[in-house]
């Protein structure tokens, strides 16, 4: 069992290089010690969590930050598959997307997302949102090991 201050592995599923860079910078800015892994589409995300192909040695993420609008397999499909798979459904998933559409919010929670966060366009606000997600899901909430 790891203690609450041990770094966890976080999987960022994001196809926008600018958003990937901002997330990495937010981690560095706040000295977040967690290990950030990045994949750029839904197919890679599922291969990562299932430890398939090039991700055979991948760690099991303690938290997934999931964009909805992804190539090859969108975030809704990824979320549905994660939550339908018994050995993966306990991984917390935070939908982190630009969409403010009510239908996306409702659908994400219907698919058992743990949280839905709209990405701020302002860099400073984005950094603060990433810090708050990290604080809440890594420091406050008890996650399964």
What would a concise description of this structure say?
Helices cover 41% and strands 16% of the residues.
Low-confidence stretches: none
| Helix-strand category | alpha/beta
Distance between the termini: 7 Å
The overall average pLDDT, rounded, is: 88
Number of helices: 5
Percent helix among the residues?
A: 40-55%
Estimate the strand proportion: 15-25%
Biggest β-sheet: count, sense, barrel? 5 strands, parallel
Number of strand segments: 5
Give the radius of gyration: 14 Å
What sequence of helices (H) and strands (E) makes up the elements? EHEHEHEHEH
Strands side by side in the biggest sheet = 2-1-3-4-5
Overall spatial form: globular
Any overview of this molecule?
Helix 1 crosses helix 5 and helix 2 runs parallel beside helix 3. The chain has 145 residues and is of the alpha/beta class. Helix 3 links the parallel strand 3 and strand 4. 41% of the residues lie in helices and 16% in strands. The model has no long low-confidence stretch (mean pLDDT 88). 29% of the residues are buried. The longest helix is centred in the last third of the chain and has 18 residues. A five-stranded parallel sheet has the order 2-1-3-4-5, sandwiched between helices. It is built from five helices and five strands. The chain is globular and about 35 Å long.
